[in-house]
Amino acid sequence: MSGHSKWAQIKHKKAATDAKRGNLFSKLARAVSVAAKEGGGDPATNPKLRLAVERARNFNMPTDNIERAIAKAASAKEVGEFSPITYEIYGPGGSAIVAEGITDNKHRTAAEIKHLLSDHGGKLAESGAVGWLFLRKGCVVLERRRNPKLQEPDSELRLIEAGAEEIDQADDAVTLFAAPEKRAELEDAIATLGFEISDAADVLVAKNEVSLEGNDKLAAKKLIEALGAHDDIEEVWSNIENL
Fold this sequence. Notes:
By secondary structure, the chain is α+β, with helices and mostly antiparallel strands. It folds into three domains: 21-79, Integrase, N-terminal zinc-binding domain (Arc Repressor Mutant, subunit A), CATH 1.10.10.200; 83-132 and 207-238, YebC, transcriptional regulation domain (Alpha-Beta Plaits), CATH 3.30.70; 134-206, Alpha-Beta Plaits (2-Layer Sandwich). It has helices at residues 6-18, 24-39, 47-58, 63-72, 76-79, 106-119, 155-162, 183-192, 214-229, and strands at residues 83-90, 96-103, 123-124, 134-143, 166-169, 173-178, 199-206, 233-238. Helix 2 (24-39) packs antiparallel against helix 3 (47-58) and helix 2 (24-39) packs across helix 4. The longest helix has 16 residues, at 24-39. It starts with 5 loop residues before the first helix and ends in a 5-residue tail after the last strand.
């Protein structure tokens, strides 16, 4: 059993970027509005909206802001036409980076990202050249301090029966993984068993991580921060273990 959960490590890497976004709430609200426009304003029947709302709540976005973002989706003119974007990137020191987001102008965003990469030692990769180094997983976190049921002898078996495909046991939390399309189902099953969910999200997990040192580490950190600060980028994932 490790000291800190795998989710804590993933979240730490994300937070290093997310905390520097001055317009984070604007990005979260836009993601909620776009999801609501595409699939309707009820998170119970719109998995994409449910994920966007959960992510907004994870960053302590006020409920009023979330509700306004959903209501805004009723006006097509306000929300506009947005498309998902994914950039696979060769980073400094042989690292791999994936940046995901939404944009209303793919050509403009692509040009800006290419310029950003040239300034920070990154290079745009062909589709699939970097993505295969990651696995997309649905992640559900149960903190031990909030879930005394985790001490019961059959708790792991019950979590597996609930749909967990992989379980990471740590001193502070138990992290469950499942296919992204099964995450909502896993959350519901866990809640029915009486467990309290601390966090949940779809994540990209590197199959193998690399360690960077010196200038490569500094350059990679600056590159990831710059990507995260871009208005159209919502998530930045890397395979760097010591960032």
